[in-house]
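Issue 218. Parser rejects a valid record. Input:
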Amino acid sequence: MNYGLVIAAGKGSKFGANVDRAFLSLGPRPILAYSLLAFEGCADIDGVVLVVRKDRVDAARGMAQIFGCSKVINVVAVAALRQVSVQNGLDVMPDDAKIVTIHEASRPGVTSDLISDTIAAAKRGGAAAIGYEIRS
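Output the parser choked on:
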């Protein structure tokens, strides 16, 4: 089984000390919603664990519900360090998790195809990191 781990806890210091970038609107929806919808629409993903600030747990659950993201199986709170936050998310992954894709939600460019490509590359090589260049 393949799972997504979506980290949505980064603060945008340019926007103010208490502003979570992932919860800012980008067009018609919050930035986080774009990432959640990409994972939701990916046939290769069986479930998603979402990591957010402690005071955003209920808002994140509500957002998943509003946007029909039924693959979100758990929402956990961040730790002081990013690597510990990732570990918190990994700790609640189901026992049947074979591949976990980790995504930073403040980067809304992820697509279902990129997620599938990452999973395919991980199956071939044991691990994978996907990046892409934006050309104008």
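Fixed in the parser; the record now loads. Strands lie at 2-8, 25-26, 29-30, 47-52, 72-77, 99-104.
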